[in-house]
Design brief:
Blueprint lengths: L5 H11 L3 H10 L4 H11 L14 E9 L2 E9 L8 H17 L3 H6 L7 E3 L2 E3 L3 H12 L3 E10 L3 E8 L6 E2 L1 E8 L4 H18 L11 H16 L5 H19 L14 H7 L3 E9 L11 H8 L4
Antiparallel strand pairs: 1-2, 1-7, 2-5, 3-4, 6-8, 8-9
Length: 312
C-alpha cells in the first residue's frame, strides 16, 4: 500500500475543498492515486460542497449554549427548513454554539477551532477536523449550501446570562434566540427566572438598543428629521413644533429602547422598573431571528418549469 503523507492530504484538500479526514480516506481507498482520490470524493459527493456556495441559505437554526456567567448564540443557515429537522444539522448547530462559548464571536476563529469529538490519524500523529471542515462535510452529505452566519457571546462578572429560544424545535435551538445579561447579587434561580422573562420580552418586542445612550445617532437623526417634517405640516409655531418632536422622540424611545419599553408580561410596568425592583442591572442583550436581513430571490415555479421545457 502506498504511503499517504500529510502533504498529499493537504494537496487533495486544496483541490477539492473536502475535509481532511475525507481526503485521507479517499487517498487510502485510491492507494495514493490523486486523480482516483478526486474521483472517489466526487462519487461520494464530498467535493461538491464548494459548488453549492452560491445558493441562498436563509433557513436553518439559531442555537444557544450556556456556562456559568456566560452564554453564546449562533445562527447557522441552510437552504430549506427541512434541514432544521435533520439530526446531524441540529448536532452541528449545538456544537458550534458550544465552540462559540469558548472561542468568541469571530466566525473565522469559530471555523478554525476544533470540532468537538472529531479526530483522525495522519502522518506525524493525531489531527482534528475543524468546525469549517465539518461544515464542508455536512454540506456535501446533506446536499445544501450552509453557512455559519453570525455569533454572539455575553459574559458578566457577577450575575447570570440567561437564554431564551422561541418555538424551540429541541432544547436550545429554534428560529428566534435571545441572550440576556443580568448583573447583581440576587439568588441564581431568581436571576435566571428574570432573565428568561426578559428574554421572552425581547423576542416579542424586538428592541434595538439597551438604553437611550445606545441608540444609533444616525437612526435618531433620521427619526428627528421625519418627525420634524410631519410636525411642520401642522402649521404651528416653531416652539410648539419643537415640543411636538420632543414628545414623539420619547415615544420613539419607548418603541426601540429595551429599558424604556412597556413590560409585555403585565402591559403596564417599564422594563427598567421591573429589573430595578428585582435588585438587578440589565447589562446587555442580543436577539437573533433566523434569516433576518437575508434577501431571498423570489421564484416563479411556473416560469421555472417553462424554462426547463425550453418554453421560457
Amino acid at each position: 500500500m502506498a504511503e499517504i503523507t500529510a502533504a498529499m492530504v493537504r494537496d487533495l484538500r486544496e483541490k477539492t475543498g473536502a475535509g481532511m479526514m475525507d481526503c485521507k480516506k479517499a487517498l487510502v481507498e485510491a492507494n495514493g492515486d490523486m486523480e482516483a482520490a478526486i474521483d472517489w470524493l466526487r462519487k461520494k459527493g464530498l467535493s461538491a460542497a464548494a459548488k453549492k456556495s452560491g445558493r441562498v441559505a436563509a433557513e436553518g437554526l439559531v442555537a444557544v449554549a450556556s456556562a456559568p456567567r456566560s452564554a453564546a448564540m449562533v445562527e447557522v443557515n441552510a437552504e430549506t427548513d427541512f434541514v432544521a429537522r435533520n439530526e446531524h444539522f441540529q448536532a452541528f448547530c449545538a456544537a458550534v454554539a458550544e465552540v462559540a462559548l469558548s472561542t468568541g464571536e469571530d466566525i473565522e476563529a469559530i471555523k478554525a477551532a476544533r470540532y468537538p469529538g472529531s479526530m483522525d490519524l495522519v502522518e506525524g500523529g493525531s489531527a482534528y477536523r475543524t468546525v469549517g471542515e465539518q461544515l464542508t462535510h455536512l454540506i456535501a452529505t446533506i446536499g445544501e449550501n450552509m453557512s455559519i452566519r453570525r455569533a454572539r457571546r455575553l459574559h458578566v462578572e457577577a450575575g447570570t446570562v440567561a437564554t431564551y429560544v422561541h418555538a424551540a424545535v429541541k432544547p436550545g435551538m429554534g428560529r428566534i434566540g435571545v441572550l440576556v445579561a443580568l448583573e447583581g447579587a440576587s439568588e441564581a434561580a431568581v436571576m435566571e427566572t428574570l432573565g428568561r422573562q426578559v428574554g421572552m420580552h425581547v423576542a416579542a418586542a424586538r428592541p434595538e438598543a439597551l438604553d437611550i445612550s445606545f441608540v444609533e445617532p444616525a437612526a435618531l437623526e433620521r427619526e428627528k428629521a421625519v418627525l420634524t417634517e410631519q410636525a411642520k405640516a401642522s402649521g404651528k409655531p416653531d416652539a410648539v413644533i419643537q415640543k411636538m418632536v420632543e414628545g414623539r422622540i420619547r415615544k420613539y424611545y419607548e418603541e426601540v429602547v429595551l429599558l424604556e419599553q412597556v413590560w409585555v408580561h403585565d402591559g403596564e410596568s417599564r422594563v427598567k422598573a421591573v429589573v430595578e425592583k428585582a435588585g438587578s442591572k440589565l447589562a446587555g442583550f442580543a436577539r437573533f431571528q433566523l434569516g433576518e436581513g437575508i434577501e431571498k430571490a423570489a421564484s416563479d415555479f411556473a416560469a421555472e418549469v417553462a424554462a426547463a421545457a425550453g418554453q421560457g
